[in-house]
Write a structure and sequence with these properties.
InterPro entries: NA-bd_OB-fold (IPR012340), Ribosomal_uS17 (IPR000266), Ribosomal_uS17_bact/chlr (IPR019984). GO terms for molecular function: rRNA binding; structural constituent of ribosome. It holds the Pfam family Ribosomal_S17. Belongs to the universal ribosomal protein uS17 family. β4 and β5 form a beta hairpin. The chain has a 5-stranded mixed β-barrel with strand order 1-2-3-5-4. The chain is an all-beta fold.
Amino acid sequence: MERNLRKTMVGVVTSDKMDKTVVVTIKDRVKHPLYNKIVDKSVKYKAHDEKNECGVGDKVQIMECRPMSKDKNWRVVEIIEKAK
């Protein structure tokens, strides 16, 4: 039996103050349906970081997973780029 494909996203870590949890902001540029203007949209997700490796400003890939707490159901797959 195969697993379903899970959603993956790439974003930037905006907070690492919690233990084993980071806040990842995903930025997207979308066209407004009425005014046809490009608008910046951002969404924040809490992601599980088992080894506390991520820091603020790191570019990471997150993947959907089972709920780990009230509002944490993503996990960090890999750190694409470390912050300077």
